[in-house]
Amino acid sequence: MNKDTLEKIGKSLQQEEERLVSELSNFARQDSNIAGNFRSEFPDFGEDEDENAAEVAEYSDRLSIEHTLEKQLADVRKALSSIQKGTYGTCKHCGNPIEEARLLIRPTSTSCVSCKKRLKGEA
Fold first, then answer.
1. How far apart are the C-alpha atoms of 103 and 88, rounded to whole Å?
2. Each residue's pLDDT tens digit in the chain (123 positions)?
3. Largest Cα–Cα separation, the chain
């Protein structure tokens, strides 16, 4: 992979990292005990029974969204780390280079198309 493409992907990953942290910060706080972990805050809508039920439902939704965003953030950070280590773009299954077009579309990819298809049973 050429240097310009790698820089473009790195910049894209950094922007995605910032977006994910910002989105998580809207409803969660960074956990000081566990790196990369956020803790959703329990909403306070009031003391009525209906409000309490809404709080529980909202909190459940927040936890689900938090988990999804944290997973995406971990993938982005892993990709950024592999760029720094010089190992970015190598398939974790076969060790061959991941197609550049694939990485431009999905920069957090860790497997080449043929390995991904084989793992999904499509090959």
1. 10
2. 889 999 999 999 999 999 999 999 998 998 888 877 898 888 787 788 888 888 889 899 999 999 999 999 999 999 999 999 999 999 999 999 999 999 999 999 999 999 999 999 886
3. 60
Which amino acid does the sequence have at 59? Answer: Y
Q: Are 62 and 27 in contact (CB under 8 A)?
A: yes
Number of domains in the chain: 2
The answer to whether residues 82 and 98 belong to one domain is: no
Both 72 and 23 in one domain: the answer is yes
Residue keyed to tokens 């892993």: 78
